[in-house]
Amino acid sequence: MKVITTLLIIFIIWYIAGIFRQTYLMALAVCIAIMVIVLLILSIIQKKKLSVSLHRNRMIVFKDTETPIAIAADNKGRFPVNRYRVTLELKYPTDKKCIKKKLFGCASGSKDNKDNISEFYLNAPCCGVIDIEFRKLRVYDPMSVLYSDKKLREKGQILVFPPERHMNIITPLYGSFDDLPLTDTVNMNIGDDHSEIRQIREYRPGDLTRHIHRNYSARTDSVWVKEFSKENDHIIDVFLNASTPEANETEWLDAFYELVCAAVSSMLKKDVVLNIHWYDKEKKLLAAFEVKSADDIPEMLARLYIADKACTEEEFSSLLPSDPTGTMVINTRLEWFFSGRPVYRFSRDNIIREISSHAFRP
Q1: Among 26, 148, 200, 350, which one is most buried in terms of CB atoms within 10 A?
Q2: Strand, coil or helix: what is 362?
Q3: Does residue 237 contact residue 326 with C-beta atoms inside 8 Å?
Q4: What is the model's pTM?
């Protein structure tokens, strides 16, 4: 609209100057036309010097939480870009629908050496991966009258994690695995077995003073404690089966990730170490990731999200251990098995309520 208005003004001035034979009006029309051409050339030059991308190649957000997504602009030109607009498309890989967003920003020149960050807010409705594609960049001239466009090929990913949820899992505390009571195998707290130091970490309230690492604390001017490994950690293999047809639907995957995250975090609170397995299509075998604490869950989810888990039920079943005793299987149909026996089948639409309100005894 601004372009049409500018051209219309030039035409009217030129027309009036021709009727009344006013030389200065003709000169004014020519000057405005030259200015428009210069602005257009400047926008084209700045367009070639400017590029945009995600501030981080992979960003992490939480489901149903409005989170700012940072877009970084790299201006290799000496002059600042007063205004640009980037068109983005966001979609889940298993969803045909995409969300289009238009983000405006500005970018200082290269000599200013500043981070040119713009943000838009995202409220992700489902867990999983959101692919983000940069479609078009529009760079405006300094007066925001004219602009120049170029197509973009930048891509990135946004990892949507589920919020922390608690499941009431009874078996790890009162049940038994391998015919041994769990209370006998995991009743030792971290730090009770002095056979091996697992790590050195900062002091937390409740830590025993005899575990303080005095030499390291003296060197760092802060209190550090020795965290010892446990001889009797019980390790459970958890197999995540994405071979069912539901793995191709965003809503089912969302419920699947909610269930996996809730089950893993709740089992960790029972002092159980988990080996998480899923199918790796590239290697055609089961990938493995050991989860010892809640700090390992984000890395586990990130690897699970980006892995190509597509396989047939026959392929997945052939890789499971012949003896299922002591193993867990969770599939994208939201069925939970332990030692080959069904534990519970969750409803996709009511899974959040079922996770929080039921007691589970594998």
Answers
A1: 148
A2: coil
A3: yes
A4: 0.76
For residue 43, the Cα-to-chain-centroid distance in whole angstroms is 34
The secondary structure of 50-70 as a DSSP string is EEEEESSSEEEEETT--EEEE
- Any idea what DSSP says for residue 326? T
Nearest CA to 260 among 240, 235, 288? 240
Strand order across the beta sheet in which 272-280 lies: 285-291, 272-280, 234-241, 327-331, 335-338, 341-345
Tokens of 126: 């489902």
Nearest to 185 by CA among 143, 216, 138, 230: 230
Query: 310 near 285, Cβ under 8 Å?
Result: no
What is the rounded distance in angstroms from the CA atom of residue 348 to the CA atom of residue 242? 15
Asked if residue 122 lies in contact with residue 66, where contact means CB atoms within 8 angstroms, the answer is yes
CB 251 within 8 A of CB 347: no
Q: What would the two tokens of residue 128 be?
A: 């999983």
Which residues lie below 8 Å from residue 270, measured CB to CB, with a gap of 6+? 169, 172, 173, 182, 186
- What is the residue type of 143? M
Tell me whether residue 218 is exposed, middle or buried, using C-beta atoms within 10 angstroms of its C-beta: 0 to 12, 13 to 18, 19 or more: exposed
**What are the tens digits of pLDDT across the range 164-209?**
999 998 854 334 444 433 333 333 344 444 446 666 778 776 666 6
- The tokens for 284 are 């055609």
Which amino acid, 268?
L
- Could you give the 3-state DSSP secondary structure of residue 41? helix
pLDDT tens track for 306-343: 999 989 999 999 999 988 888 999 999 999 999 999 99
